[in-house]
Write a structure and sequence with these properties.
With 290 residues, the protein is of the alpha+beta class. It has two domains: 60 residues; 146 residues, Heat Shock Protein 90, CATH 3.30.565. 59% of the residues lie in helices and 15% in strands. Strand 6 and strand 7 form a beta hairpin. Bound molecules: adenosine-5'-diphosphate (ADP). Adenosine-5'-diphosphate (ADP) binds next to helix 5 and helix 6.
Amino acid sequence: RLTLARVRDELEISVERRTRDLMASNQLLSAEIDERRRAEANLRQTQDELIQAAKLAVLGQLAAGINHELNQPLAAIRAYAENARRFIELARVDQADANLAQIVELTERMADISAQLRQFSRKSGERHESIAVQACIHYALRLFHSRLRDERVEVIERLPHEPLWAIGDLVRLEQVLVNLIGNALAAMKERPAPTLTLSAEREVDGVVIHVQDNGPGIVEEHLTRIFEPFFTTKAPGKGLGLGLSISSRIMDDLGGTLTATNAPEGGARFTLTLPAAAPPGTDSLESRHA
Ligand code: ADP
């Protein structure tokens, strides 16, 4: 009996020790998990900040064109205002009024441009919502308005009449499109007849958008590398090599993809996919019927 009692005591001691060990390693694991969660949250925040910084950098590159877009109507407003004053002096009210009407129209145009800049530079939320793909393409194109005109770029749009709805984030998708269009324009700099083709269509499992140029295309060995951070073939100071890696990351976050190929007729062709969304309003209707 004595032996039995000793064996039982030893067993209890050893179980207790084992339990303590297990609890200690359990605590260690919990601490590690917490640490990893914190690191992940940190990483996400840093990536979000990087995306925002990249967007502001793009805005900086667009600034010259936008400045031009704002200066033109500003000069016109001044001329119309001077005219209106002269007509008032001469008591030609109708003509003064016509000049003032022009001023109102021009200020509306300037307000449009400014609203667009505000929308592009704003931080995007975490929400994924139904977005109208064509509208997003047009917002992105409008930021390049003066550059497209000055560089005589022909823009071909192959977009369906019916609005295409995708699940995503308007600000982020616009950022990706602005990056792709900016790259396309840079690639076509030396082309005699630069052509930018934008198309979008609904496919079985989502919405597909293509951005294609008629530049030199992408060297075959670079096709797999262009999405790497800091990969660039641009001269020092001309490109950081972050645009495509950030764009690809944004598309991942939106549950979509970004890929590149060379078009058979030459030039680079970037393809974006996004999950399709039901047109706003119809979703709730369907569920009500169900
Ligand atoms: P960056 O524009 O700063 O170089 P990106 O990540 O946007 O950085 O692009 C990486 C590289 O991919 C470019 O340097 C270029 O070699 C290639 N590239 C991107 N877009 C095009 C295009 N439309 N045509 C040809 N090459 C392109």
